[in-house]
TrEMBL record, chain A:
Its main location: nucleus. Required for proper 34S pre-rRNA processing and 60S ribosome subunit assembly. Interacts with pre-ribosome complex. It is found in: Nucleus, Nucleolus. This is 60S ribosome subunit biogenesis protein NIP7 homolog. The keyword Amino-acid biosynthesis does not apply. It comes from the Eukaryota. It comes from Cuculus canorus (Common cuckoo). CDD domains: Nip7_N_euk, PUA_Nip7-like.
Length: 180, 685
């Protein structure tokens, strides 16, 4: 377990910024203590300082997970955000997409969101903007990338993709093994 | 138009709408029923009938055909139940009024018979003679006799005679069947006689009355052990489960009332051996496991336990209060088409699922982490542990993470939880579950539980859900019925003893809010439960405290030839057949001193070592170091605990450089178990 290097920190914050913008500061300075990022076996973990102390005493080979995993670095050092970060992204998300109940299941299976399944979308969403996907009951389902800007969404035909799927909560069941 | 019973017969109806209405069953059935005896007589109510019967009785008695002057026959057919009370009262009145004499003995006697049969009120002809008799009585009335007796049930001797042939035939049939269902033996005749004897004895009635009730007494035929030929024959043929089941039931009855129902010359052991063989065949258990279970459960409970293991327990879920509330979750699930209920008064987060149109493990609420699929019994150890906010908790065997996440939600994501498991495969589900449920205060590690407290100690509370033989969850994993034997149980027990000692050592007794260890297993074996806890009580400075669970059976304080500490009454056992949850055992221990007691055998060398070690600040060699230090600890045990702790800290700090480079309230490395035989008992148990 080691702290992130400059380059790594930059790429992580860049990625996070795509979804939550400048609210990253809120992640670091929380009212209940300081939180930090640590790297362990190519995965980035988000933990509080208290937890850090306990985790530090566990031998490296035996340590499996600490706090919340935000994502991992691929072999070419690109940062990939995972669904386990959803709980922290959702409250600070700047651009949101609501999905109709009928295509909830489809998104949870890993498919992209089509225009026919689009319920609501935040105004002024740019194209290729990171968005958080919600169900109509305001339950966060995952996140993705907007394929079309809000204006275009209105014009496009029902079978067109409007949100590219990046991560969804269905992965807890589908990809349980690869979470760690 | 209404339905007509007889399409060939046309009724003359008047003009108009109302004439076309069906006039009711009474009228329709009147065509089938025998006509009323006296057309001139009024239709009486039941009360009226009773009074009329009394009048007739007073007028005179004659063994004429059965009671007449009754109301509509329909009523009798349709409601024999009404008849019974009516007749019973009627039956009683002649008793009081006329008294017993030789003349009226015949009609009086059956009245007794009426009272004794069960109140089953079944309409079947074979089992309830009363209905039979009433129908007979109906036909009597057709003859139009006016002098009838109060009670319809064989009041007259002529009726009795008519009944008897049918009864006799039924009896014969029953006797034949009874002979076949029993094991063949030469004494069949004797047995039948004996059975009949028993029957009549039991009823305490004369011979003629016993035919009425032999129908109910089939079960009391004497149970006989199978002969050797029978056994050989059964060994060759495929087992007939029905016969085995009947034999189990018969055997149990004999064993309940052994002195009375036993066969001469056969020991209790033979009956028990047969019972075990039959149960092993019927329920597919190994003989070893049945032996063990017979020691734990009394016989009727054993059958319930075995039956309960054949059926799965209800599916239960636990609301994740970090993300939602129970009633919101219940509402959302009901909207999806799930049939559920709160688990019980004892749980504020549990819900039991009766049935569901969607898979419970895949609803969007599940994926969003609003609930966790968990057995009801798994909620109990965490409730017993009662973790407080901002504590350090260790969960030594956490997979698949249900209890860990419950601890986290009770602590509201404050404090620190170290979730450990020795199986790396199963840890993946722990990580997945913790992330899904939004637990942020957990560190997951993959150490052997016995490495604690070396890895990290000084926890406020420890939960040890020890790996066990799984005899409490046979309904989930039927393979346990056959693949466990003595070695497995002892191996589990050994591992559990090691783990519990390590768990105790990982707790800091001086913690302000904690100092508790909860030990639980999903097994019903005494070797894995009470024995392990008793061992811990002997080896460490802990005592048992109340678990805080107000239901559940108390643990054993003695078992076969072993005697446990009396405080084991505060432990709790849960069974599938009594609580409808998986078999579980929970014990809560409080550590009252961080010192590790020495065995009294080692007192000599310890005392010797104590003198040189009174020089506090010497740095010593590793091997004798331990002993001497413990010796000094024994010494210090007598002093008040606070200064002892402080002294130990300084010694420790100097003795060896701590791995993490920071001083921590670590307890001593525990002694190799087994060296200490006795325990320096502390007051305050």
């Amino acid at each position: 377990m080691r702290p992130l290097t400059e380059a790594e920190t930059r790429s992580v914050f860049e990625k996070l910024g795509k979804y939550i913008g400048e609210n990253i500061q809120l992640l670091v300075d929380r009212p209940d203590g300081t939180y930090c990022f640590r790297l362990h076996r190519d995965r980035v973990y988000y933990i509080s300082e208290k937890l850090l102390k306990v985790a530090a005493s566990v031998p490296r080979d035996n340590l499996v997970s600490l706090g919340t995993c935000f994502g991992k670095f691929t072999k070419t050092q690109k940062f990939r955000l995972s669904v386990t970060a959803l709980d922290f992204l959702a409250p600070y998300a700047k651009f949101k997409v609501w999905v109709k109940p009928g295509s909830e299941q489809s998104f949870l299976y890993g498919n992209h969101v089509l225009k026919s399944g689009l319920g609501r979308i935040t105004e002024n969403t740019a194209q290729y903007q990171g968005v958080v996907v919600y169900s109509m009951a305001d339950i966060p389902l995952g996140f993705g990338v907007a394929a079309k800007s809000t204006q275009e969404c209105r014009k496009v035909d029902p079978m067109a993709i409007v949100v590219f799927h990046q991560a969804d909560v269905g992965e807890y069941v589908r990809n349980e093994d690869t979470l760690t | 138009m209404g339905r007509k019973l007889d399409p060939t017969r046309k009724e003359k109806r008047g003009p108009g709408r109302k004439a076309r209405k069906q006039r009711g069953a009474e009228v329709e059935l009147a065509r089938f029923l025998p006509p009323e005896p006296e057309a001139g007589r009024k239709k009486l109510s039941s009360h009226g009938r009773r009074r009329a019967a009394k009048r007739r009785l007073a007028a005179g008695r004659s063994p004429a055909t059965g009671g007449g002057g009754r109301g509509p026959e329909i009523k009798e057919q349709v409601s024999p139940q009404k008849q019974k009370p009516a007749v019973k009262t009627a039956g009683q009145t002649p008793h009081r009024q006329s008294g017993f004499s030789d003349d009226n003995s015949k009609w009086l006697a059956p009245a007794k018979a009426k009272k004794t049969p069960s109140k089953g009120n079944n309409m079947e002809l074979s089992s309830d003679g009363e209905v039979e008799e009433s129908i007979w009585e109906m036909e009597e009335e057709e003859d139009g006799s006016s002098e009838e007796m109060v009670d319809d049930y064989g009041a007259s001797s002529s009726e009795e005679e008519e009944l008897l042939p049918i009864e006799k035939a039924a009896l014969k049939q029953k006797a034949d069947r009874g002979g076949l269902s029993e094991d063949d033996s030469e004494e069949e005749e004797e047995e039948k006689e004996a059975a009949e004897e028993a029957r009549t004895q039991k009823m305490g009635q004369k011979e003629e009355e016993s035919p009425d009730l032999q129908l109910n007494l089939d079960i009391d035929e004497q149970f006989k052990l199978p002969t050797n030929e029978q056994i050989e024959r059964e060994a060759v043929e495929p087992p007939d489960l029905h016969i085995i089941h009947q034999r189990i039931k018969g055997n149990m009855e004999v064993l309940q009332d052994f002195a009375v129902k036993r066969e001469e010359g056969r020991t209790r052991q033979e009956y028990l051996a047969l019972l075990r063989r039959d149960m092993a065949a019927y329920y597919s258990y190994s003989d070893f496991l049945l032996l063990k279970l017979m020691d734990i459960f009394p016989l009727p409970e054993l059958i319930n336990f075995l039956e309960a293991n054949e059926v799965p327990r209800p599916v239960t879920i636990r609301t994740n209060t970090l993300k939602t509330r129970r009633r919101d979750l219940a509402q959302a699930l009901i909207n999806r088409g799930v049939n559920l209920d709160p688990l019980g008064k004892w749980s504020k987060t549990g819900l039991v699922i009766y049935d569901s149109s969607v898979p419970i493990g895949a609803t969007p609420e599940y994926l969003a982490g609003h609930y966790m699929l968990q057995g009801a019994s798994s909620l109990l150890p965490v409730m017993a542990l009662a973790p407080q906010e901002n504590e350090r908790i260790l969960d030594m065997c956490c997979a698949p993470g249900g209890k860990t996440s419950y601890i986290a939600q009770l602590m509201k994501n404050t404090g620190v939880i170290l979730a450990n498991d020795s199986n790396a495969e199963r840890l993946r589900s722990v990580v997945g579950n913790l992330h899904r449920l939004g637990v942020t205060n957990a560190v997951v590690s993959n150490c052997d539980g016995r490495q604690f407290p070396k890895v990290l100690g000084g926890f406020d509370r420890v939960l040890l859900d020890a790996p066990c033989s799984g005899t409490g969850v046979i309904s989930k994993d039927p393979a346990v019925k056959t693949n466990k034997d003595e070695k497995d149980i002892l191996r589990c027990a050994h591992l559990q003893k090691e783990l519990i000692l390590n768990a105790i050592d990982s707790v800091n007794a001086a913690s302000e809010t904690g100092g508790y260890i909860v030990y639980c297993t999903c097994s019903v074996m005494v070797e894995e439960n009470e024995w392990v806890v008793d061992y811990a009580l002997k080896k460490r400075n802990v005592r048992l405290v109340d678990t805080g669970l107000d239901f559940g059976k108390e643990g054993f304080t003695r078992f076969k030839d072993r005697r446990f500490h009396p405080s084991l009454k505060s432990t709790r056992r849960f069974y599938p057949h009594t609580h409808n949850m998986d078999g579980f055992f929970i014990a809560k221990l409080k550590k009252f001193s961080n010192a590790i007691p020495q065995a009294q055998k080692d007192e000599e060398p310890a005392v010797v070592a104590a003198t040189p070690s009174t020089v506090p600040n010497t740095v010593m060699e590793p091997q004798p170091k331990k002993k001497k230090l413990e010796g000094s600890k024994v010494d210090k045990e007598q002093k008040p605990p606070q200064p002892a702790l402080k002294k130990r800290h300084t010694l420790q700090a100097q003795r060896r450089p701590l791995k993490t480079g920071r001083p921590s309230a670590k307890t001593m490395r525990p002694q190799v178990p087994g060296r200490k035989k006795h325990r320096v008992k502390q007051k305050g148990q």
